[in-house]
Write a structure and sequence with these properties.
mainly alpha, putative deoxyguanosinetriphosphate triphosphohydrolase fold
Length: 456
């Protein structure tokens, strides 16, 4: 093992330069979990679309419930992987590290899972697309105001990079260091640990990007304190931290299986088809005895309960298989020689899982209700950006009355009037990307005159 396992984690916090003398029965990593749970950014996920728009009386997942479930799976993965590392590499670990892997790794993984989507704007990927498209379509007017690296951040806007910003930035009037999470937790959500100008298709850690220019120095500190391997310096690129693979696996497992369950609950897909897809997966993975599953299933008559049971069995099977793959490839993962998501390896070897992915893409993700909300969300986000970005880039003395009124709608913590054009625009992106679906729609309707009236 060429990488020192004792240096893969750090309880150093962003925005904190001195050792705290505060006595707390919780570990530093338990405190991360609690800080995320109680943060306003996390609470806003309850009104951000996961896949389906709010469907009235039928409950389906939103970003918040999805994140909680991913954290649950991540906790299980972290516990078992921690046991594995503690036992297999005991001779390489000091006493502090033995305690970390045995008793704290699961808190790091579950905390990272909690906040893995915290940077996603309203309306999910269509919201991301709207932000990137706004800058792409206004390149002739806007690009000259920014450096190449800054412009690249905007035209490649990415929820993962936005998560690092939300969790670490110093907003006007608020604490330095954002939520002040440990570097271990922050390193664990960095799926794409590079700056935007280094983005490159076909390379797993450069498929997207992981931090804006404003958080570059912060990310370098996180990477240094958690022994992330630097691939190149200009543009800045790191290889993935070993814990990232576990967070990614927990996310992949949950959204693929639970989206299927939600679609069945809404009547978008047939119950029997859903049941057969999940039974096929359980049989194909081979963790659970399919005969016992069939016996238990035969005792249930409620359709939603049958699917919930199979969902639980499917998640257990995929979780167990992911841990097996991680353990088998652990040394390559730690040393930066691994390049395929754990879930993709399972998919490659499971026809049943590939069938679920193909079926979901055709009948769920391209369902009319999903496409409608994506189109609507794109337009809402695009128009909100148009309303705020042009005014914020104009000099105060040359703004029109309507532009002055637009600026007055922006909360003070997002206003950076005396800063560079780049930071002023990032403030607007902080405001707009942080909106819930409902808030964004409501504000859009009001500034467009679709709905008029006093609202406190």
């Amino acid at each position: 093992m060429s990488i020192d396992l004792n240096k893969l984690y750090s309880d150093q916090r962003t925005g904190v330069n001195s050792v705290s003398t505060f006595s707390d029965p919780r570990t530093e990593y338990q405190r991360d979990f609690d800080r995320i749970i109680f943060s306003s950014s996390f609470r806003r996920l309850q009104n951000k679309t996961q896949v389906f728009p709010l469907p009235g009386s039928v409950f389906v997942h939103n970003r918040l419930t999805h994140s909680l479930e991913v954290a649950s799976v991540g906790r299980s993965i972290g516990t078992l992987v921690g046991d594995f590392i503690t036992n297999k590499y005991a001779s390489e670990l000091n006493e502090t590290s033995k305690s970390f892997y045995q008793h704290s790794l699961y808190n790091v993984i579950s905390s990272a899972c909690l906040c893995h989507d915290i940077g996603n704007p309203a309306f999910g990927h269509s919201g991301e697309d709207a932000i990137a498209s706004f800058f792409q379509k206004n390149e002739s007017t806007l690009k000259e105001k920014f450096t190449d690296n800054e412009w690249s951040d905007f035209i490649n806007f990415e929820g993962n990079a936005n998560a690092i910003r939300i969790l670490t930035q110093h907003q006007n009037g608020k604490s330095d260091g954002g939520l002040r999470l440990t570097h271990a937790t922050l390193a664990s959500i960095a799926k794409y640990p590079c700056e935007s100008i280094a983005k490159k298709k076909g390379i797993i850690h450069r498929k997207k990007f992981g931090f804006f220019q404003t958080e570059k120095a912060t990310f370098e500190s996180i990477a240094e304190n958690t022994s992330m391997i630097k691939e190149q310096n200009n543009p800045l690129v790191y290889l993935r931290h070993p814990f990232v693979w576990l967070v990614e696996a927990a996310d992949d497992i949950c959204y693929n299986i639970i989206d299927l369950e939600d679609a069945q609950r809404l009547g978008i897909i047939d119950h029997d088809i859903c049941v057969n897809l999940l039974k096929g997966l359980i049989k194909d993975i081979g963790i659970d005895n399919i005969e016992n599953v069939e016996i238990n299933l035969s005792k249930m008559t409620d359709k939603n309960d049958r699917v919930s049971y199979l969902r639980a069995k499917s998640i257990n099977s995929l979780t167990t298989k992911s841990i097996e793959i991680y353990q088998t490839n652990f040394e390559d993962i730690v040393n930066g020689k691994f390049s395929t998501p754990l879930y993709d390896i399972i998919t490659k070897n499971s026809t049943a899982l590939q069938n679920i992915i193909d079926f979901s893409r055709k009948y769920i993700y391209n369902h009319r209700s999903v496409i409608e909300i994506e189109n609507a969300g794109f337009n809402v986000m695009y128009e909100l950006l148009s309303h705020f970005i042009f005014p914020i880039l104009n000099d105060k003395s040359s703004r029109t009355k309507s532009e002055e009124k637009a600026i007055l709608l922006i909360p003070t913590q997002f206003l950076y009037e005396e800063e560079s054009a780049y930071k002023r625009v990032l403030g607007i992106l902080d405001y707009v990307s942080g909106m819930t679906d409902n808030y964004a729609i409501d504000l859009y309707r009001r500034i467009k005159g679709i709905e008029i009236g006093m609202k406190i």
